[in-house]
Amino acid sequence: MSARAHDHYDLLIVGGGAAGLMCALTAGGRGRRVAVVEHANRVGKKILMSGGGRCNFTNTGTTPANYLSANPHYCKSALARYTPWHFIEMVDRHRIAWHEKELGQLFCDVSSKLIVKMLVDECEAVGVRILTSCAVERIGLDDDGRYRLATSQGVLRAPRLVVACGGLSIPSMGATGFGYELARQFGHEVLPTRAGLVPLTLSGKHLERMHGLSGLSLPVTASCNGQSFSNAMLVTHRGISGPAILQISSYWQPGDALHLDLLPGEDALDWLQRQQAARPAAELQTVLSDAMPRRFAQRLCEVWLPGRSGHRPMRQLDPPQLKAIAAVLSAWPLVASGTEGYRTAEVTLGGVDTDGLSSQTMESRQVPGLHFIGEVVDVTGWLGGYNFQWAWASGHAAGLAA
């Protein structure tokens, strides 16, 4: 059935991702006539691919401190009113088995398809109409205050419009800057955007020094601009990735100092002194190989440690040498040149300026009936389910008001 047969609604939602579907089922549950317009051939594509196909759907440790925004207070209201436990209740009601992986991260036991099915089923139960493969060609505001959407499936009209079409990350999944264009069309500021939760790239000698180490993983503490994350780092063909690097990438920009502690949780000098006392005959390289992958320890000794200290027994290293080695281990001097960009970024930093939006309802302060939710807004979460929780919370807030 074409959209022409149903071109009058209470609410139109552009974007059938996590935020859009949550908004739709919430508004539909209040008796609103809702249509979701999705340009892709199916809804929830980023949900489907997330968490290795198992969807890291929330984080039980969610707080406003887990988000980046020009206004760090903006996300507080929505997150307080729709918590991870609200979403878990819906997951449990649909009998979707889940588990905690680490650090409060919750995943489906079976498949992320179950989360999409749950959201679609909830939408259908309250009469929400979902239009897929429906491209929006033009959006305007009629004289009667209704929004008019000219789409590939006909004209849709409603007094309220929710923009939930995401950011620029992973364009292969259909991401575009359409939400930002709409914001500007209606007079909203859009803060500069950049890739977040993204691998970092190396160049020149920094990349050469890592040759042959691709695929190695080790625990690190990555620090930049006052933030630190302890987790795994993965060496790639083009640079470094892994949870610790993805996390710190949101705080790093080219030219910023990046500090990598290769002995997370340890005082490097104290650790070396203990090793020297316990294993005086062992070579430094051998000792380091017990704390990190052997090939990585060898390369560290070849390239970054002073002299030929890596091949010397621990007992031969004097206090100044131990101090110099500790300095490298606690602040490995790796210089990143850039990121892999939106192609592999999990999120987009920046977006619609929250100064122009209500934190209670996500509604525009300038244009009545216009709401912005999810990734298109200048609120970006850490890795680990926080961005889905923002999608649920902001979608719920708009769905209660629209």
Automatic annotation (TrEMBL):
Cofactor: FAD
UniProt keyword annotations, A-Z: FAD, Flavoprotein
A Pfam family matched in the record: HI0933_like_1st
Domain RsdA/BaiN/AoA(So)-like insert residue range list: 194-347
Keyword presence, DNA repair: no
Record InterPro entries: BaiN-like, BaiN-like_dom_sf, FAD/NAD-bd_sf, RsdA/BaiN/AoA(So)-like_dom, RsdA/BaiN/AoA(So)_Rossmann
Domain RsdA/BaiN/AoA(So)-like Rossmann fold-like: from-to ranges: 10-399
Signal peptide: none
NCBIfam families to which the protein is assigned, alphabetical: aminoacetone oxidase family FAD-binding enzyme (TIGR00275)
PANTHER family assigned to the protein according to its UniProt record, in alphabetical order: OS12G0638800 PROTEIN
Protein name per UniProt: Aminoacetone oxidase family FAD-binding enzyme
Biological source species: Marilutibacter maris
Lineage: Bacteria, Pseudomonadati, Pseudomonadota, Gammaproteobacteria, Lysobacterales
